[in-house]
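sorry for the late reply, my laptop died twice this morning and i had to redo everyting from scratch. anyway the thing you sent over, i finally got around to it. pasting the sequence first so we're on the same page, its 272 residues, then the predicted structure underneath. double check i copied it right bc i was rushing
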Amino acid sequence: MNIAGGLNAGMQVATALVTTVGLKFLGAIAVWIVGRWLIRIGVGLLSRSLTTQKVDATVVRYLGSAIAVLLTVVLIVAILGLFGVETTSFAALFAAGGVAIGVAWSGLLANFAAGVFIIILRPFKVGDFITAGGITGTVAEIGLFGTALDTPDNVRTIVGNNKIFSDNIQNFSTNPHRRVDLTAQLAGSVDHAAAIQLLKDGLAQIPNVLSNPAPVVEILDFTLAGPVLAVRPFCNNAHYWQVYFDTNRLIRESFGRAGYPPPSHLHVVKQA
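ok and here's the structure:
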């Protein structure tokens, strides 16, 4: 009887424990779902409010990411409190393992600090076309730890903020126009002055080529085949590739219509 009674008591205790833990677990799931939903709603309302007040999109997205992360940490601590975990014990744990955490998170902290400096110094903003961290693309978002770039072939690429901030940054959208750099090889028998004027007249007809500054067509170099012309029209960054391809087409078609012979390299045969 004593053994049976002990088993019954043990089963009751185990059942009560499982029930308590199960209820806490279900409660934690419910709190997580509701909390995340409220965080999304709150961040969305804040973002819309800042956007309505004409706050820069870069700042809006950065603040939204920062607040979402902060509130998520608070939510996790609150869920742990449901299981009876004291938040003061977490403070002591983090204090004891501060050095190890600092080393492990040094990269994240460096990216976070670089993101703050990017927001403050503003070398670029959302929508700018840049080259940074070895990647060229349009800035889609500046996050807490990384910046999202959409490359010209439409691939979303995330680059760490620290890599961007510690490297050279080229912002093609800051200035009102940029130069397209192309070359045209002439045969040695072609009158270079006539070829230069032919290209200048053709560049004036290409859409979105700026007249001020005027396109530059000059002799850049000499090869065995003949002179090499530098062909450099100016345009707005948004029209770069259209002007680039149209200028290449102009070189090919205008030289063909003018009857210029194709350049051929001279090969020097060494005597044995």
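The mean pLDDT is 83.
thats about all i looked at so far, will dig more tmrw
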